[in-house]
Structures are given as C-alpha cells and as structure tokens.
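// run 5 | inverse folding | seed 20
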C-alpha cells in the first residue's frame, strides 16, 4: 500500500465526487483535483444539463481543490500533468484515454465500472442492465489500459439490487457503500504493479449508447422488453421516455405496468402493458 498518494478524481456529480473523495481521505490519501466529464465523447459540445451540474459541483468543491473541465483527452492529460499525481480515479467517464494520459500518474489510472467485467464493457453498463432486465448490478474497480474497460481487476462485487422503479437516486444508497468498499480495497493494491487479475476471456459483452431506434416502442417486442425500455429511459431522466403509437396517436411513455392498472393498454408480442404515465408528443413539439 502506498501512503499518502496524491490523487485526481474524475466523475459526474456532487454525491459521486464526495464518495470518491471521502474514501481517499479515509485511506490517508490526498485528493487534489477534480475533473468533470462534461460530454459523452471528447471534442464534442457540452452535454445538455452539464453546465448546471458543473455549477453544483463547483458550489460543493472543497477548499483548495481545483476543478478541471476538459474538452479533450489531450487537454485532460496536459492539465493533470502539473499536479504530480500518484493516481487518477475515474467513475462515470466515457472517454477512451490514450497512453499519453494513462502514463501521467505514477501508478496509472483506475476506473470504477458498474458491471461485473467483462460483462457490459462500454459507456452505458447500467442502462444495459436495466434494458436487459437484470435483477442485480455489479461493480468493478480495474486498472485502465488503452482498451475499453479491459484492464486487470483490483476489486469486484456483484449483488446490488436494481429496483423495478429504478432511478439514479434510489439506486445510489445500495451502490454507494459497495463503491466505497471496493475503491478502498483497490487503493491498497494499486502501488503494486503486479496486482490485479486479468479479466476472463469468456462472457465479454458491450454496453454502448442506446441506438436511435430504441427511442420508439416496437410492439413486436415482449411486454417485459417494452417495460424495461421505459425503465431505461426513466433512469436517464425523469421526463424521458420512448414514443409509442396508441390508438393512432404518438405518446411519450413515461411509466408502464405489467399488471392491470388504470391506464392505456398497449398490446405487445406476448402480453399487454399498461401505460401509467405519458405525455402527448404533439403537445411538446
């Protein structure tokens, strides 16, 4: 175990940065800089809502800690080079980092990934777990290399329940203690360059961003698939939903039930779903 490491943190929200920072401090380390991943891909425009999120992160920023808002991997590498970092810790960072960045910190870069790697490699593991109807979520802390989510595993745990009405807010209480425990275990191993178990060659799957066609409900899918499609959108945002044609009119579907309730009935390939919340597409332009 390396004592008193200087650590940089990359994440996406106030609670997430706080969890990473507190875990590092509890381990005797010094988080000296934050970097906020403000876009899903480098060299692209700032994501909608990112400016508001950056404002909340700034308001909660600990005294003496800098905040970086990189627009490219090269900019990130150039920025963190001046902090003499021992380690960079990423959670919720979708960019593929080049070797020029991975080699900046003394012990490299570790990533916290919300799946049991090698399952769901890619930028959207939680969305794919919801989409596929997985009952549980896993978390892996691994060394970053030039392949997406393929580096050696430092710590890993399965079994975090995914509620049927899953949102970021109600998933976090189960996820946070696991994340903290696994990061603490990884920090104890990271200074040993030989530490970390290679990922299995079997069971590799990929979790890319949702394809454009996923924004439309296809009633040739099963009722469970449609229900999980709506759940996936709800996790992405409270007013997001796929569009379904019901009685000849398009509706943004915000909530569904697999059991009969008051609401519009939508017949799918094997059974109906009941639409419990929706918005008129025409009314929202």
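// decoded
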């Amino acid at each position: 175990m390396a004592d008193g490491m200087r650590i940089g943190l990359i994440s996406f929200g106030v609670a997430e940065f706080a969890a990473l920072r507190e875990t590092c401090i509890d381990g005797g380390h010094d988080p000296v800089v934050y970097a906020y991943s403000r876009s899903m891909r480098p060299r692209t425009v700032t994501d909608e809502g990112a400016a508001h999120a950056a404002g909340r992160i700034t308001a909660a920023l600990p005294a003496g800690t800098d905040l970086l808002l990189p627009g490219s991997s090269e900019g990130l590498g150039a920025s963190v080079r001046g902090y003499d970092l021992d380690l960079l810790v990423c959670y919720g960072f979708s960019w593929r980092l080049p070797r020029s960045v991975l080699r900046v910190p003394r012990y490299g870069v570790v990533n916290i990934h919300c799946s049991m790697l090698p399952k769901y490699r890619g930028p959207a593991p939680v969305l794919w777990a919801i989409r596929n109807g997985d009952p549980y979520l896993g978390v892996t802390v691994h060394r970053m290399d030039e392949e997406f989510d393929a580096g050696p595993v430092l710590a890993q745990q399965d079994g975090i329940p995914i509620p049927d009405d899953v949102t970021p807010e109600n998933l976090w209480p189960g996820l946070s203690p696991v994340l903290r425990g696994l990061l603490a275990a990884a920090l104890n191993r990271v200074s040993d360059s030989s530490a970390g178990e290679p990922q299995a060659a079997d069971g590799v799957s990929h979790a890319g961003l949702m394809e454009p066609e996923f924004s439309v409900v296809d009633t040739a899918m099963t009722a469970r698939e449609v229900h999980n499609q709506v759940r996936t959108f709800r996790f992405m945002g409270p007013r997001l939903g796929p569009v379904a044609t019901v009685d000849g009119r398009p509706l943004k579907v915000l909530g569904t039930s697999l059991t009969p309730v008051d609401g519009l009935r939508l017949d799918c390939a094997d059974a109906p779903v009941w639409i419990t919340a929706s918005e008129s597409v025409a009314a929202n332009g």
